[in-house]
Amino acid sequence: MSLCRSIVHFNPPPLQRLNTSTLLFPNRPRNFCKFTALSLPAPLSSVSSSSSMDTPPEGYRRNVGICLISPSKKIFSASRLDIPDAWQMPQGGIDENEDPKSAAIRELKEETGVTSANIVAEAPYWLTYDFPPDVREKLNRQWGSDWKGQAQKWFLLKFTGKDDEVNLLGDGTEKPEFGQWSWMSPQELVDHAVDFKKPVYSEVLKVFSPYLQ
């Protein structure tokens, strides 16, 4: 992670294995998901794309997103330590001169500890989202930048390991970002994302839909 993506500095408590499936999904069976152990809701913004695979739109921070799917075609999602009720797929900044595909593999390992995964597909264009004003102010002050938002290249990866490989402490190279994780359906994933990421998530799931059925 070349840049810190946390909006609020947070000293996390020890990670615990929690079963909050009845809290998140009260109508689901109790064995629906397993847990170990982005920002505040904002007005819905439209999603935009760039037709070039190589050049993201100007004014946006280059970023990768990782849609990690299980053999049963559920999607990995995790809650941020700084905002526990918001869930997201792994993502992170692309280092200078770094290939987006390499960045996706690196970020997945840094944030989840997962290395048993194969890249299956790549979104053919960049997707962008704008930061809400308060988030933009905090992040740009923290980064010393003036990004309008993030331009993301998304990758679909198939998880080939066991659930106990997931380690939200990551690979130890960066501070942990997540407190809990779950395999979710596409609709559950969108429902539990922060509002300003929902359009991008919906587009990502549309692009990767042939692999989710």
Secondary structure elements and pairings:
Blueprint: H1 21-24, E1 48-50, E2 60-69, E3 75-80, E4 87-88, E5 91-93, H2 100-112, E6 117-122, E7 126-130, H3 133-143, E8 149-159, E9 178-184, H4 186-191, H5 198-207
Parallel strand pairs: 2-8
Antiparallel strand pairs: 1-7, 2-5, 3-4, 3-9, 6-8, 7-8
Query: Could you name the ranges where pLDDT drops below 50 across 5 or more consecutive residues?
Result: 1-53
Strand content: 15-25%
Order of helices and strands: HEEEEEHEEHEEHH
How many helices in DSSP terms? 5
Query: Can you count the beta strands?
Result: 9
The N- and C-terminal alpha carbons lie at a distance of 32 Å
Computed CA radius of gyration, to the nearest angstrom: 16 Å
Major sheet: 6 strands, mixed
Helical percentage: 10-25%
Shape: globular
Supply the helix-strand structural class.
alpha+beta
Overall mean pLDDT = 79
InterPro entries: Nudix_hydrolase (IPR020476), NUDIX_hydrolase-like_dom_sf (IPR015797), NUDIX_hydrolase_CS (IPR020084), NUDIX_hydrolase_dom (IPR000086), RppH (IPR022927)
Keywords: Hydrolase, Magnesium, Manganese, Metal-binding
Protein name: Nudix hydrolase 26, chloroplastic
GO molecular function: metal ion binding; pyrophosphatase activity
